[in-house]
């Protein structure tokens, strides 16, 4: 019942964003990325609160969730470089939605961390499907455009420690994607979302309290094969996106 309610809430949010931004892909991605990083802020806030109160300390969880927020920040910076935040109304909608979402996720995470992770799994799964559809439709167009400087700095030229840190089911330094054009950038973002899904699934495992570790700390979590390969069954958007 709880999962049904969470899927319904995600479905409503997705419907609203996809309806308002049907023909404005970069603005839609800007809104999605503004909202998508908020739960990681919520997780970090609650984890810091628990540590401050002396209840328990989860240093590895703090590292992983901060790395996830760092990854989503760079997705957002890429969308801003493409003009996704050009209009005031888009910034207003994204920021106020994110503010409300933050407090919802803080409350949910305090009551049921597993439910909070499940909800984020659904959000990240939708993001994967959205980007996957976009690159399939606009491959030739995107391949003809250069990669933004911020994407090159994040995926190729910068310190990739944080890039490895959010991928708890992938060995550090094993994923070094190409970033030669805008198509590569969107493929990388899509694949990042898939890695977020895997990490959210790992956080829901019964032994996650002790098993979830920073990728640079101990061994990478080995999920069952079907969990590693199967993404959430969220229907892909049915409307086509115009460039």
Could you provide a short overview of the structure?
This is Plastoquinol terminal oxidase. The chain has helices at residues 2-20, 25-36, 38-52, 59-81, 88-111, 113-137, 139-143, 149-157, 161-165, 182-203, 208-211, 225-229.
What do you see in this structure?
This protein is an all-alpha fold and 243 residues long. The protein has a single domain, classed as Alternative oxidase (Ferritin), CATH 1.20.1260.140. Helices cover 69% and strands 0% of the residues. The protein is built from twelve helices and no strands. The protein has helices spanning 2-20, 25-36, 38-52, 59-81, 88-111, 113-137, 139-143, 149-157, 161-165, 182-203, 208-211, 225-229. The longest helix is centred in the middle third of the chain and has 25 residues, at 113-137.
Q: Identify the overall geometry.
A: globular
User: How many structurally independent domains?
Assistant: 1
- The CATH architecture category equals Up-down Bundle
Assembly category: single chain
Unreliable spans: none
Percent of sequence in beta strands: under 5%
- Helix and strand pattern: HHHHHHHHHHHH
Quick one: CATH class? Mainly Alpha
How many strands, what sense, and barrel or not for the largest sheet? none
Radius of gyration: 17 Å
The termini sit apart by: 39 Å
Number of helices: 12
DSSP, total strands:
0
- Range of helix content: 55-70%
Mean pLDDT, nearest integer?
87
The chain-level structural class is mainly alpha
CATH topology label: Ferritin
Please name the fourth-level CATH homologous superfamily: Alternative oxidase
Keywords: Electron transport, Iron, Membrane, Metal-binding, Oxidoreductase, Respiratory chain, Transmembrane, Transmembrane helix, Transport
Subcellular location: Membrane
Protein name: Plastoquinol terminal oxidase
Cofactor: Fe cation
